[in-house]
Each structure stands twice: as structure tokens, then as C-alpha cells.
Design goal:
The chain is of the alpha+beta class. 31% of the residues lie in helices and 13% in strands. It has one domain: paralog of FGE (formylglycine-generating enzyme) (Alpha-Beta Complex), CATH 3.90.1580. It is globular and about 50 Å long. Bound molecules: calcium ion. Keywords: Signal.
């Protein structure tokens, strides 16, 4: 039957709708997406060059030998605050694109749960094995080459007296409870740093930042991940002691000043929110990054 003129706009509209649907379908199968519930096919075809981008703009790349994608950066303050979870900030200056610190290990896990609901995918903290697979080989040379990551550079020596006092107080509470992680030589280095006039800094090492740096300020590793060395240590999906809610952290941070501290298998701890000692449940050197289950 010949279409009458009044049907033409209708057919035209259908054609445009069909074209738009085909276009959108094509877009949804390309490696780069804008998140918000994109098809699972995206997660399978994501590459380092074309990361999955979620609804908060977080980028995720595959980690060989695992079934996860890992966020290329530590979780920022701006991203964390989207969740509405408790945020107490730090005693040193930070801006919104710096890694969030001072959250509890439990809040880091809750952020991943919130993000899962928000983005319609499964997010969580990385296991220690996943974190190690993502970190690759530890930095081989000591001292590391300048700007290798945000470690305890000479910039730390410009810290104010109040900053030194506060951070040393926090550290002095932790060390007696973490003594079983360190041998006597390591403990001696830490205690010496706590009692010296300045924070311990790596001789001759500079990294442009006194405390945390904006995420992604240094070169990425071979998988496209930033700050696996330095900036903040990262809470993992694992327990030192589940009974007491003591979680494992991995990786070095802006205050790491000795060779053993920047080895990838160096472990730290962070308590849950129900820890009676606040300094064990919060840390100005610890943040986290998310993984996305494919
Ligand atoms: Ca880090």
C-alpha cells in the first residue's frame, strides 16, 4: 500500500529511532564505555589502551591471570565523597583529586558496595594476590630514581613542627602493636625516624610533594596502573586478624623512607571502625583502590 503523506513522518521517525538504536548498540560494545550499567561484554573486551570508565569517571584495566579489572588510580577524595560515607580529612593539605585517607578499612569496603549499587557491577577491594599481580616486580634499585613515586622525599623536611608531632604521635601508637611485622633492624630504623628532628627521608630523593600527591602524578606501571609504588598504602580484601577486624594493606606511601618499605610484598595493617584505638582504625598514609569483577 502506498504510504500517504501523514505516514511519512511516522516512518521517518521509526527510521531515525532504528538508526539511533543501532548506533547506541554499537557504542555499547566498544571497549570504552561511560559506565552506569553498560553490558558485561565491555568488561571482557577492555584493554589497557581502552579502559572501562565507570559512572564516576574511574578507569579500570585488566590484570593478567585474574578475573578482575583494577582502577588505574587510588580512590580520590572527590570520588569517596560521592558515597556519603564518613569523611574526616587529613591534618595535612589535600585537594579533591588526592587519594582519600583516614577512612577505616570497613568504610573502604563499604565504598565498593556503594559503587556496586551505583554502577550495577560488582566492585570490591583487591585480594592481596590480585594487588601483587597488579604491582608486578618491586622497584629494583635503591635509592629509587627521582620521581619514581610519592615516597619520603627531601620535601618532607619542610614539614612543620606540628605536622611532625602529630604524625609521630600516630606512628608511635602503631609500632608497638605492629612489632610482629618487623625484625629488630627494621624496628630500630623506625624508632630512629620517630625520634629524629625531621621525618626520615630518602637521601637525595625528590618527588615534588611533601605529603600525598594528586593521583596519577607519576608514570604508570606496565599495566597502566598509577601509584602502586608510593602515595598511599592500599587496603586489601584480606585480614591479618578477622576476629579483631585488622585488615591488610599493601604498598608503600608518601612516608616510606627505607628500602624494605617499598617492596611490593611489604604489608601493613588498618583496623575496622570498631577498633578502640583510633590510630589503628585510621591512617593518614593509607587509602584504597577498587577492583571490578568481570
Ligand atoms: Ca599507592
Amino acid at each position: 500500500m502506498k504510504a500517504t503523506p501523514r505516514f511519512i513522518p511516522s516512518l521517518l521517525a521509526r527510521a531515525i529511532a532504528c538508526f539511533a538504536a543501532c548506533f547506541l548498540t554499537h557504542c555499547a560494545t566498544t571497549p570504552v564505555s561511560t559506565g552506569g550499567g553498560a553490558s558485561s561484554a565491555n568488561l571482557q573486551t577492555t584493554t589497557k589502551e581502552s579502559p572501562y570508565v565507570n559512572s564516576l569517571g574511574m578507569k579500570f584495566v585488566p590484570i593478567p591471570g585474574t578475573n578482575i579489572l583494577m582502577c588505574t588510580t587510588e580512590t580520590t577524595i572527590a570520588q569517596y565523597q560521592q558515597s556519603g560515607l564518613p569523611f574526616q580529612g587529613s591534618e595535612y593539605p589535600q585537594s579533591s583529586n588526592h587519594p582519600v585517607v583516614n577512612m577505616t578499612g570497613g568504610d573502604a569496603a563499604k565504598f565498593c558496595e556503594w559503587l556496586s549499587r551505583q554502577d550495577k557491577h560488582t566492585y570490591r577491594l583487591p585480594t592481596e594476590a590480585e594487588w601483587l599481580a597488579a604491582a608486578g616486580k618491586s622497584p629494583g634499585s635503591w635509592p629509587p630514581p627521582g620521581n619514581a613515586g610519592n615516597l619520603a622525599g627531601q620535601e618532607l623536611k619542610g614539614s612543620s613542627e606540628s605536622e611532625r608531632t602529630q604524625l609521630k604521635t600516630e606512628f608511635s601508637k602503631k609500632v608497638p602493636d605492629q612489632h610482629y611485622f618487623y625484625d629488630q633492624q627494621q624496628l630500630a630504623v623506625i624508632r630512629d625516624a620517630m625520634t629524629s628532628k625531621n621525618f626520615l627521608a630518602i637521601g637525595g630523593y625528590t618527588d615534588r610533594h611533601r605529603h600525598t600527591a594528586p593521583v596519577g602524578s607519576y608514570a604508570p606501571n606496565s599495566l597502566g596502573l598509577y601509584d602502586m609504588v608510593g602515595n598511599v598504602s592500599e587496603v586489601c580484601d584480606g585480614w591479618v586478624d578477622k576476629m579483631t577486624g585488622l585488615r591488610v594493606t599493601r604498598g608503600s606511601n608518601w612516608k616510606s623512607a627505607v628500602a624494605y618499605a617499598i617492596r611490593n610484598h611489604e604489608r601493613g595493617t588498618l583496623g575496622n571502625s570498631d577498633w578502640p584505638v583510633k590510630s589503628l582504625a585510621h591512617s593518614t598514609t593509607t587509602g584504597f583502590r577498587c577492583v571490578l569483577v568481570r
